Amino acid sequence: MVPIEELTSKEISEFIKKNRKSSVAELMLKMPRFTIEAKWIAAQIEGWQKASVKLPAWAENECIIYPIRLSMEQCSSERTGLYKSTLVGGNVIVDLTGGFGVDTFYLSQSFTKSFYIEQQEDLAQIAAHNFNVFGKKNISVLSGDSEAVLTTIADKIDVIYLDPARRKEQQKVFKLSDCEPDIAALKDFYFSFADTILVKTSPMLDIAEASRQLSNISGIHIVSVDNECKEVLYLLKKNYTGEPEIQCINAVKKSIQSFHFKNSIEQSYKAPQSMPLQYIYEPNPSVLKAGGFNTIAQAYNVFKLHQSSHLYTSSEHITDFPGRSFKINHITTYDKKAIQALIPDGKANIQTRNFPDSVEDIRKKIKIKDGGSIFIFATTLMDSTKVLLICEKI
Questions:
Q1: Does the N-terminal or the C-terminal CB of the chain have fewer CB atoms within 10 Å?
Q2: Does domain 76-242 have CATH number 3.40.50.2300?
Q3: d(Cα 322, Cα 222) in Å, to the nearest integer?
């Protein structure tokens, strides 16, 4: 059982608040004796530290109880949770893998009634407390085996949501068959309860392989936050046989970069190539993960530097390109003296795209430190020459 009453007592809650920015490892060495195990206090401090970045609205609420570290690492962020709430809606949703409850919390905003199911009683207890703290009256918390509990829900279900566990015996796994529950094996069972299934998977899971295992996919959503790919969502519709649309989403600060395509178009179109023009573009991680390398060139009228480089160029600046934009200041050979002459302060941010040497090897060879406002792209051009593009970010 989670000692919620003790954790929310004045003495312990004040201690947690006072020390929530402290190093947990150091704090454990000098923590005073309380009526509960120190691990629970440590979990609150670690949890708040993660939430202050990942779940800022939750971190602002001092009554929230946090779970063990693994659950905090695996839970969705506030921004990805909000995005999921825009994908589905209706009367009833069931979250079969409730966890810390972040996805249930945000998904419930689009439904009249929501069911949170979690087999770990401690997590279910924490989620129930937190939903109550937020005043969420439309969420019912149920504990037990998800398949068994699902059969007890009398309401007509519109959507089933799953975030299968991606760790087994402390090892990360990236295949659907290695996750629990096994959505590929249980898909037809779930469709007997709801016509729509939303599945969250690790960004490490191969999209093509997952698509072959699942079928009935109407949409695939690759979601990044601040240029880091966080999760891939599969929206399954019962009896759907068409081609899924792939949505590439990147939440950057207060804006959303969005790009969508279908694989049939991607395979039928070949991006034109060009030597470097005035501007260079690097697609965001969602586009790179999705593999929309040809369709993005078609959509934004840009050229690839090389078939395998995945960098794009144009004469005019494309302001809404879904990724980062740079202005090319110099194009140079892979030569130490030439590069150092162009970077007098000896600092630059280096990236490689289709280049034989690693970033570390390049730094050693040209003696350039990390940092500064200059960006170097080490890449291969359409004529197979290896060059370094000296750029400034726009």
A1: N
A2: no
A3: 13
CA dihedral 94, 100, 105, 106 (to 10 degrees): -100
**Which uninterrupted H or E stretch holds 39?**
helix 38-54
Rounded Cα gap, residues 252 and 256, in angstroms:
6
**Which residues make beta-bridge pairs with 223?**
231, 249
Q: Is the CB of residue 279 less than 8 Å from the CB of residue 326?
A: yes
Tell how strand 217-225 and strand 245-252 pair up.
Answer: parallel
With 0-12 CB in 10 A as exposed, 13-18 as middle and 19+ as buried, what is 356? exposed
- For residue 142, what is the enclosing H or E element? strand 139-143
How far is the C-alpha of 126 from the C-alpha of 123, rounded, in Å? 5
CATH tag, 267-393: 3.30.2130
Q: How many helical (H) and strand (E) elements, i.e. helices and strands, does the chain have? A: 17, 18
pLDDT per residue rounded down to tens, the chain (394 residues): 899 999 999 999 999 999 999 998 888 888 888 889 899 999 999 999 999 999 999 999 999 999 987 788 889 999 999 999 999 999 999 999 999 999 999 999 999 999 999 999 999 999 999 999 999 999 999 999 999 999 999 999 999 999 998 655 556 666 788 888 999 999 999 999 999 999 999 888 889 989 999 989 999 999 999 999 999 999 999 999 999 999 999 999 888 999 999 999 999 999 999 999 999 999 999 999 999 999 999 999 999 999 999 999 999 999 999 999 999 999 999 999 999 999 999 999 999 999 999 999 999 999 999 999 999 999 999 999 999 999 999 9
Q: Please measure the distance between the N-terminal and C-terminal CA atoms of the chain and give it in whole angstroms.
A: 53
Q: Is 4 helix (H, G, I), strand (E, B) or coil?
A: helix
The 3-state secondary structure of 6-19, one letter per residue:
HHCCHHHHHHHHHH
Pair type for strands 349-353 and 374-380:
parallel
Q: What is the CA radius of gyration of the chain?
A: 24
**Measured in whole angstroms, how far is the alpha carbon of residue 248 from the centre of its chain?**
11
Residue 385 CB contacts under 8 Å (≥ 6 apart), including other chains: none
Domain ranges of the chain: 4-66, 76-242, 267-393
Instruction: Quote the CA–CA distance of 168 and 212 in Å, as a whole number.
Output: 23
